[in-house]
Amino acid sequence: MASSGLQIVGFLLSLTGVCATIAATFMVEWEKRFQVKELTYEGLWMSCISTTETTTCEIYDSVLKLPTEIQVTRSVMVASLFFAAMGLIISVFGMKCTRFMDAMPQGKGKAAVTGGILFILSGLLTIMITSWYVSRIVQLLKTAHHLQSKEFGHAVFVSWAGGLFTALGGVLLSLQGCWGSKSSTESIGTNHTHGRIK
Fold first, then answer.
1. Which keywords label this protein (predicted)?
2. Is the pLDDT confidence value at 192 over 90?
3. pTM above the 0.90 mark?
4. pLDDT for the residue numbered 103
């Protein structure tokens, strides 16, 4: 029961991380640019210009015209979400609290490990690309015009948190899947031994 509880904790951590990663991917506050009388927010999919009176947003109409940091970050975040989605599906089959693959305990354990590894990969991709994006913004800050300053927005912190939770949950799932598979193998071996003695 304790091992099943640890799997649930790992799965919920990863699920929370994936939700945060989705939110960060579509948030508009990846970068903030301050000008004299307006504030510009730039996300991975759209930008918004805010003044004292109005706020207008516009979806990017051409990928090729986007800065390199936005193109690369958007692509990697989508890849991260793909791996996370695969991890969610596969780990459900491997968790002890579900009825899937009950007749194949070793296969169930391998499914949990595979799901956990996919979560770890997703989380690491999110953390690395977010850190790279921040480093690019910091470099741009050093060369920014004196009438225009840039800084990274709230989406960066949400993305970091999402990547961390996703990877941590994946670690718990992978470790518990390995332990669970080993325990099942030892249990099967013990049952065979007792059967021979009888």
1. Cell junction, Cell membrane, Membrane, Signal, Tight junction, Transmembrane, Transmembrane helix
2. no
3. no
4. 61
